[in-house]
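Homework-ish question, so no full write-ups if that breaks the rules, but can someone show me the predicted structure for this set?
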Amino acid sequence: DTEVTQTPKHLVMGMTNKKSLKCEQHMGHRAMYWYKQKAKKPPELMFVYSYEKLSINESVPSRFSPECPNSSLLNLHLHALQPEDSALYLCASSQDSRGGIHEQFFGPGTRLTVL
Amino acid sequence: AQSVTQPDIHITVSEGASLELRCNYSYGATPYLFWYVQSPGQGLQLLLKYFSGDTLVQGIKGFEAEFKRSQSSFNLRKPSVHWSDAAEYFCAVGAGNYGGSQGNLIFGKGTKLSVKP
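A: Not a homework solution, just the prediction itself:
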């Protein structure tokens, strides 16, 4: 299984809502990532988890809260978002050899609209 | 600092014509290089990668890329484009250790490929 799955595919939420994005992989990867992608732009890294521990937070506002319950799952909890947070949110995973570079496998993304 | 430049924002080619998408990188050591493709509203799919060895790498869907250290380039090529190749293409460089564990990817701004029938 070389697939990264993400749910939901689409999400519309108000600025006062709380919602969560989910990501799952069964490739035995130990590094997982959240990216944000605005239209016609490359993905921007938000968070990296390595062996279920948060290793990188790219100065993301606290209204985004990541969680890695186990090595296969990655969540992104959303609260009090702003309209400018509307974007495609991509999850990715890769091997983690604690020193090497490996290709990242991306999920299909969640299209988030904040009203 | 590491960076990736894709000079062409948008390229249009006729179906059946050859394709070359340009990518230049800035990186102090031997780079780890990737090409990804993204169809509208979809995730990124890895086309090919270069880590070391043969400088001409073959990927999926008939794509290939050539690493040229002297030119700091990693251009993507395809001899005959199909209409289904219309998409956004991103070149990326692996930025080395980051936080002591997994390396990060730095993406170029992307090149949008349109295919004329």
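Now go work out the reasoning yourself. Hint: Chain B touches chain A through 28 residues (CB under 8 Å).
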